[in-house]
Write a structure and sequence with these properties.
The chain is an all-alpha fold. It is built from nine helices and no strands. Helix content is 80%, strand content 0%.
């Protein structure tokens, strides 16, 4: 049961990020086919390969450095990684939120590169798209592995396969699906996941003594109602950073993170309406 819970986060993360990359690649390939520019397909696939290799290299570097830390250094690294990942998730949510007519912009970029005969431009476009999603995936999975402490291979693989299948179906069979609803649902999950990472990061810094632990901490103890070790408690802890014994700073970090992301989204909305 716990293993299935721990697989859920990597499945959702890899599904979301792979689907975003698949949509970019699918739009580019579809545009090239419809404009009879299949010659540039090879640049697209080379870009995909380069983005994947760069992401794998980043994962290897992160794992190598992370594996070499112990004690206080490991705790400090974990806390910093969680905060960096939370910031990255926030940036990604806002970036996706601001993208209106994404397919149209991608097509315009591809058309501009074709006009100039720059296959390298198409290569860079797809490579950076895949690398961006790959980098986010690496950070999110590493941060979630600290919380869940589990093997993420099965969940991550299932998420990738599901996203590839959906991406292929979208462009092969022209399925009509409201992708905005898919991304909205995953955005809700990611907002709460990011807030949980911030709270976890604060917890690590409190254990290190970098942040204070007040005399009245924990603020409350509801372990008798929903313990961290129970199935539901483990699920909520893994997904959203739940703890039955939160400190004041953990609660403040969690609530302010959610409020901050929602405020930034409102700012982004106002900016878009202004233009």
């Amino acid at each position: 049961m716990v293993a299935s819970v721990d697989m859920l986060i990597p499945l959702l993360i890899t599904f979301r990020e792979t689907l975003e990359a698949a949509i970019v690649v699918g739009v580019v390939l579809t545009f090239l086919v419809k404009t009879d520019q299949k010659f540039f397909n090879t640049y697209v696939w080379r870009g995909v390969g380069a983005g994947i290799l760069a992401s794998v290299f980043l994962a290897a570097v992160l794992e190598t450095f992370f594996g070499g830390f112990t004690g206080r250094t490991e705790m400090l690294f974990e806390g910093m990684l969680m905060l960096v990942t939370a910031v990255s998730i926030t940036w990604m949510i806002l970036w996706v939120h601001r993208q209106k007519d994404v397919a149209k912009k991608i097509k315009e970029d591809v058309a501009r590169h074709i006009e100039k005969g720059y296959g390298i431009g198409i290569f860079i476009l797809t490579a950076t798209a895949v690398l961006r999603e790959g980098t986010e995936t690496v950070l999110y999975l590493k941060a979630s592995s600290i919380v869940a402490q589990s093997n993420q291979l099965i969940g991550g693989t299932l998420g990738i396969l599901a996203a590839l299948a959906l991406g292929y179906a979208l462009f092969r069979f022209a399925l009509r699906i409201n992708l905005s609803m898919v991304f909205t649902a995953t955005n809700v999950f990611l907002i709460m996941f990011a807030a949980g990472l911030v709270a976890h990061g604060v917890h690590e810094f409190q254990e290190l003594g970098v942040l204070p632990v007040f005399s009245f901490d924990p603020v409350f103890n509801i372990a008798h109602v929903l313990d961290n070790q129970s199935f539901l408690g483990s699920l909520l802890r893994t997904l959203f950073g739940y703890t039955s014994t939160p400190t004041l700073l953990e609660l403040a970090a969690y609530t302010s993170s959610i409020a901050g992301i929602l405020w930034l989204k409102r700012v982004a909305d106002r900016t878009l309406r202004a233009y």
